[in-house]
Amino acid sequence: MTDARSKPNILYIHSHDTGRYLQPYGYGIQTPNLQRLAEEGILFRRAYCAAPTCSPSRAALLTGQSPHSAGMLGLATRHFRLRDFNQHIIHTLKGAGYTSALAGFQHLSGTRYHGGAADIGYDYVLTEELPQAQFAAADFIRSKPQTPFWLTVGFFETHRKFPTEHDVNPDYAQPPALFPDTPGTRQDMANFIAMAQILDDKIGHVLRALDETGLRENTLVIYTTDHGLAFPDMKCNLTDHGIGVALIMDGPAPFKGGRVIDGMVSHIDIFPTLCDTLGIDRPHWLEGHSIIPLLTGERESMRDEVFAEVNYHVAYEPKRAVRSERYKYIRRFDGRRLRVLPNIDDGITKSEWLDAGYGKSEIAPERLYDTWLDPVERVNLVDSAQHAEVLADMRARLERWMRDTDDPLLLGPVPAPPEAELNDPDGVSPRPPLVTV
Question: Are strands 316-324 and 305-312 parallel, antiparallel or unpaired?
């Protein structure tokens, strides 16, 4: 093992509800700081979260395991929390000589009920005030800590509420492929674009501090987001529109070169990758795979499949998914046919879809998609005789993973913790009234 002082710093930047709708992924959304990060580092075109809902997604990345294994079944803001904060990556890194600091969002422990960031165990909580996150992070970097550091910088952007006063002209905005091209959806997307540009400016403020202090060359920067956009059929959904995420890593070799990697990776692969990079032992609970062979070019793929789940968002909506190179299988476990509308953030596009009958459209309890021929995942192949073998294979993969990870859904409905605040699944909005368990 190398001396702690020679180890790279790690800057972990995460945003809300951004998916892959950024300039480095080819969209007309100017994010020059993230573009530079991608051109200098590694851009993962097929990265996936382990849960398309805020706290469970972050918990999976930071503990290297599925959300249900980590015990993070819902939102920290609704009284859900990690089962064991000692499984958070900062505690493993502390044993390797790292100092940990937080600026902005952490989203694993709600301050209304618990100690917030103090529960997690950061050495320094710089600020949890979101407007100050980029300034506090930059000041910490400029202090040039004497030990290698893990710095979490969590931004509110691009969560709704989107700004409504900006200079992005909706006449030239393109909504995601899922949505009709209407004045309303264009305005909704223009508002998102304006917020994505604010996000990029804030990220740039932090990255400039690395440049100014000379720490950039010995700092691994990780940028990602929790899940897809806060639009219908994206966030809180297990299609690629919900679980597909941006992931950019830039740092010392092998995280250099302006390269693109097409192999599938999961958020839960980041923890073991860092262990291998730093030469430290992997904790026993890790479920992910090190992606170092992808970075070195030794392999073009590491995974035959990725898994994702939803338990609770603001309402109960248990479902699981497995995605192979070509196919996606999604299964619901609540017996519902209608969507859980409170799990969709309110906004212009949601309102338009509700007016068009979206709330009354049914969803099959099982879905199978061919993501090559049907990338928007609309044509359900569950009843296709031609795909019977594929369906059986995907069912078996999902069941095997659920058993291997002791998924609580195997025993029936997953209970919420005492005092959890939830919405009625039959409601329409995530706003109150709430039901306390």
Answer: antiparallel
